[in-house]
Amino acid sequence: MRAGTLRIKSFRKKNDDGPVRVSMQLGAREHHLFFESKDIQLAYNMDVFLTLGFVPAMKHADTLIVDGEVSPRLLESIYTLSGIYRSWYPSLHDITIEKAVPAVKTDIREQRVGLFFSGGVDSFYTLLRHCDEITDLIFVQGFDVDIDNDDLREKTMTMVRDIGSHFGKRVIEVRTNLRLSFLEQYVGWGILGHGPALTCVGHLLYPYFKRIYIAASDAYKDTLVFPWGSHPLLDPLWSSETLEFVHDGCEADRVQKVALISECDKAMKSLRVCYQNRDGAYNCGRCVKCLITMINLYTVGALDRCTTFDAGLDVREVSRLLILRNKSGDGYVNLKTSLDELERKKDYGDVYKALKPVLNRPRWRTKMIRETRRLGCQLNNIFNRMKSGENQDKVAGMADFSRHD
Ligand SMILES: [Zn+2]
Hints:
alpha/beta; 10-stranded mixed beta sheet; binds zinc ion
């Protein structure tokens, strides 16, 4: 259901070094967002808001009010962006942008080149490919590390700063709640949200950067098939006259990327891909992303050299993977490149034997197993709650008994 207008209700910045705070209103809902960095002075500007609000507005509003100066190039690109999004997702619609005043920014201070860096395969690949040009690594807390997970943030930032020091790059950490407090309430993070989220943070840095690299998730052959929130067609269109976004790395598939980074010892001692971080693990070695990367590393003969996984590759866990065939964002493409490479190398060992049935399983069967596991988990939770309730009753009974003793 459309909620009318998306607008900024207020924004404030107490001092030059303080956080940027934005209050946004969509229909009756108000969202309070912040952006902060101890490493650089963030530059509030309306390109940030246009980038951040455009996709949610295409889904849930008719009008986006951008009351201020915006980049003419970005404003012109909005119509192309709209056409791409609508061709991919027909449920999205055209919106009206009001009050935007086209103006080229002139207060440029430096000409640095940044890379959004998470320590994963894609961003390591882009760092190694453009190491001479890149001056800064940019890490955003609140995207794939939860805004409240201070332990993991500490571990991750230690790694990013160590990589920065090793390669002679500055490191910029930006914290924001835009993912949980706004974007994910309106659009899916993977399929729509994370590209605009990255470029929105990039626009906060515009006085210092002429170019910022965004590491590609997919190779060109796959980007033609799978729409995704960060995409070679989309990311450059979020650029302004003074800041260019480059979607980088589509020339290589996942196995080719892992092969390149496996030649770098520092990458093999720092790689971070886990999204579950069970028990605070840096890479749990059990979640889908960990397993996919471990299989990719095994494929290129580098698994033993990568020291950042908390567990070895367990082929029983591989055979339990539930991957939908030809599904974007489900890991299918990254695993298929490994399977193809193992076949090419005639490595028909345990990993191949475990992986092949997973990727050949019909989609209906994968969905059925997923549903069965989900119901099993629910029943287990109910059973555990009942059991703990029984125990509490027993404890309460004992307490009553002791009181009467
Ligand atoms: Zn993991």
